[in-house]
Design goal:
The chain is mainly α and 240 residues long. It has eight helices and no strands.
Length: 240
């Protein structure tokens, strides 16, 4: 039984890896992290601004819910449009490169040879490698070297859109629930504290995803969140 379960897990993992290429996985994660981050900041800014205007609990909740779904739809739609444009560009570059190979095979071979020489191979070895790879799959290898595009691994706009949509909703739930259920004397302060914790987490996740400085990523995220809530609170207070 254990061997059957293990083989099933391995086959599932292999299918998952084949379905989502590394670049596609990173694109989905990127959309998810950005969606959650925007959900926290946007809805926190809305509910803190409404709280600054001294509005009722019902007004706070309605404003938060409206901001949550409006923002989620906006983020999902924006990701769909953005990634669709990127996908169209990838397909266009593939078409252009295919025509270049048909029209000037020797020139493409020379460019690929030069690419491997620049990577550190000797001229003779670079020529042999380029020749062999061009014979096997000229379009794929030249696309990879020139444009960092792999055939059949175009970005899927629906994956990014869905990831961004649901992560925005999850992120926005924190400030919405905080402003709703924290007792009135501590409502604003408690929501700000919860947002700071959440922004610290998403800042760390973003920095880790980009392999950049974690502390700087956290501070940058927290300062953006604090700045947003401060401005909307002051605006709400002045109008209220």
């Amino acid at each position: 039984m254990k061997s059957i379960s293990s083989s099933n897990d391995e086959s599932f993992s292999q299918r998952l890896i084949q379905k989502f290429h590394l670049s596609e996985q990173l694109n989905i994660i990127r959309a998810g992290v950005l969606g959650a981050n925007d959900g926290i900041v946007s809805v926190a800014g809305i509910v803190i601004g409404v709280a600054g205007a001294q509005q009722s609990q019902a007004a706070l909740f309605i404003a938060g819910i409206s901001g949550m779904f409006a923002g989620a739809l906006s983020m999902g739609g924006g990701e769909y449009i953005s990634v669709s444009t990127q996908r169209d560009t990838q397909k266009t570059m593939t078409h252009i490169q295919n025509k270049n190979i048909q029209a000037n095979y020797d020139g493409e071979l020379a460019d690929l040879t030069q690419h491997y020489e620049d990577e550190g191979l000797t001229p003779d070895l670079a020529e042999k490698v380029a020749t062999q790879l061009m014979e096997n799959d000229a379009l794929n290898v030249t696309l990879k070297s020139k444009c960092n595009i792999e055939l059949q691994h175009y970005f899927n706009p629906w994956h990014a859109a869905i990831s961004s949509f649901f992560s925005f909703i999850l992120g926005s739930l924190l400030p919405l629930l905080s402003i709703t259920f924290i007792p009135n004397p501590y409502k604003v302060v408690g929501t700000i504290a919860a947002v700071i914790l959440a922004m610290s987490f998403t800042g760390y996740a973003s920095a880790s995803l980009g392999n950049s400085d974690r502390i700087r990523g956290v501070l940058r995220n927290v300062l953006v969140g604090l700045g947003t809530m401060t401005i909307t609170y002051l605006i709400g207070g002045s109008l209220g």
